């Protein structure tokens, strides 16, 4: 006889997927299993919680020294373009980013972009700029937050940028993930990394997701609905969308190859059950940390040697999404809608 399923609503300390024995793939992770394992990358959050109306925020991904005069190679892919990825057309055209990457709530994206421009123009990297391409992605947190109030302001953007640091990255209901949901659960920010052997050298690839998409969760090939793990079945809410996946690597890659990585970042969402619905803008953005035009260092990798990076991005995105679900906290929005995180003990019991 199967043991009774643990109470999914009992308070427990959240744990990441790998700590629960749910590691994805065979490649080793970086020290923190986070985007910040890629050298020169910092992450910061500003979290806005004013129950029950506001559960929102902003997340900043800050590559060291990036600016108009020191752009980094980048590629972007829209699996479904129902979203607002500000700056994406210039990335597609020129294959570069020249600002940090910010993530936030849909209707706050435009305020966030303006604040990012102001911050960049004040810094040495933007001191002589007469044109600037701010990169801002978004997810719709309107189910669990008063999205029309556009709560994210300039001070919140600057706080996320200035507080960005290396080391462990806060996950779950923080920053841009404070009010997001995915696969019937409370979701949010998730991250993971992989150390990848390439041509006799080891490189690092890291990802960060802002998870906010429909579908049915799959873990190790098994579906897991809220009801399967003892949670209330959510009432149908507005279509969730604009799942953002950001990838960084110190591998010697060019913009075209990074676009190939960005595509696979979006493909990886299928592993965890993404529905890729009409209202879900599924975006991948990948960038390299070696500045454009760097004369020193290894040559760009031949395409035939990219497979280990492709494997790494697929595995890291899958694990990052699981982390976003497991590390989140129960949240109730202004309309009374509640979403619960993925409960670890019932999930493990379901998986056997």
Largest sheet: 6 strands, mixed
Strand order of the largest sheet: 4-3-14-13-10-9
Q: What percent of residues are in strands?
A: 15-25%
Summed up, the helix count is 6
Low-confidence segments, given as residue ranges, are none
Total E-strand runs = 16
* Spatial separation of the terminal alpha carbons: 13 Å
Shape field: globular
What's the mean pLDDT score? 93
Helical amount: 10-25%
**H/E series:** EEEHEEHEHEEEEEEEHEHEEH
Helix/strand structural class: alpha+beta
What is Rg?
Answer: 19 Å
Write down the oligomeric state: single chain
Question: Can you characterise this structure?
Answer:
The strands form five sheets. The protein has a six-stranded mixed beta sheet, sandwiched between helices. Strands 1-2-5-6 form a four-stranded mixed beta sheet, covered by helices on one side. By secondary structure, it is an alpha+beta fold. 20% of the residues lie in helices and 25% in strands. The mean pLDDT is 93. It is built from six helices and 16 strands. It is globular, with a radius of gyration of 19 Å. α2 (109-122) packs across α3 and α4 crosses α5 (307-326). A hairpin with a 2-residue loop joins β9 and β10.
Quick structural overview:
The chain has 352 residues and is an alpha+beta fold. The protein has six helices and 16 strands.
């Amino acid at each position: 006889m199967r043991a009774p399923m643990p109470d999914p609503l009992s308070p427990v300390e959240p744990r990441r997927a790998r700590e629960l024995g749910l590691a994805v793939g065979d490649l080793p992770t970086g020290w923190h299993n986070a985007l910040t394992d890629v050298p020169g990358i910092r992450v910061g959050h500003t979290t806005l919680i004013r129950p029950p109306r506001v559960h929102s925020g902003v997340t900043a991904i800050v590559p060291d020294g990036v600016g108009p005069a020191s752009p980094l190679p980048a590629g972007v892919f829209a699996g479904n373009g129902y979203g607002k990825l500000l700056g994406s057309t210039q990335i597609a055209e020129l294959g570069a980013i020249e600002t940090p990457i910010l993530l936030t709530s849909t209707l706050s994206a435009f305020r966030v972009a303006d604040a990012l421009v102001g911050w960049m123009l004040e810094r040495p990297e933007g001191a002589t700029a007469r044109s600037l391409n701010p990169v801002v992605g978004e997810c719709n947190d309107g189910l669990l937050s008063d999205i029309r109030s556009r709560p994210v302001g300039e001070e919140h953007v600057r706080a996320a940028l200035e507080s960005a640091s290396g080391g462990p990255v806060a996950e779950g209901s923080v920053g841009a993930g404070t009010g997001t949901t995915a696969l019937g659960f409370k979701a949010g920010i998730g991250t993971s990394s992989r150390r990848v052997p390439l041509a006799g050298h080891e490189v690092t690839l890291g990802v960060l997701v802002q998870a906010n998409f429909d579908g049915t969760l799959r873990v190790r090939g098994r579906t897991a609905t809220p009801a399967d793990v003892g949670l209330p079945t959510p009432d149908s809410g507005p279509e969730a969308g604009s799942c953002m996946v950001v990838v960084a690597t110190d591998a010697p890659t060019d913009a075209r190859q990074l676009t190939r990585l960005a595509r696979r970042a979006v493909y990886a969402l299928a592993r965890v059950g993404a529905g890729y619905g009409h209202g879900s803008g599924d975006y991948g953005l990948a960038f390299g940390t070696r500045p454009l035009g760097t004369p020193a260092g290894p040559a760009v990798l031949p395409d035939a040697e990219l497979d280990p990076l492709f494997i790494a991005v697929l595995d890291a995105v899958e694990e990052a999404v699981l982390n976003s679900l497991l590390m989140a906290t129960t949240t109730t929005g202004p309309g009374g809608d509640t979403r619960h995180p993925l409960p670890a003990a019932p999930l493990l019991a379901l998986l056997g």
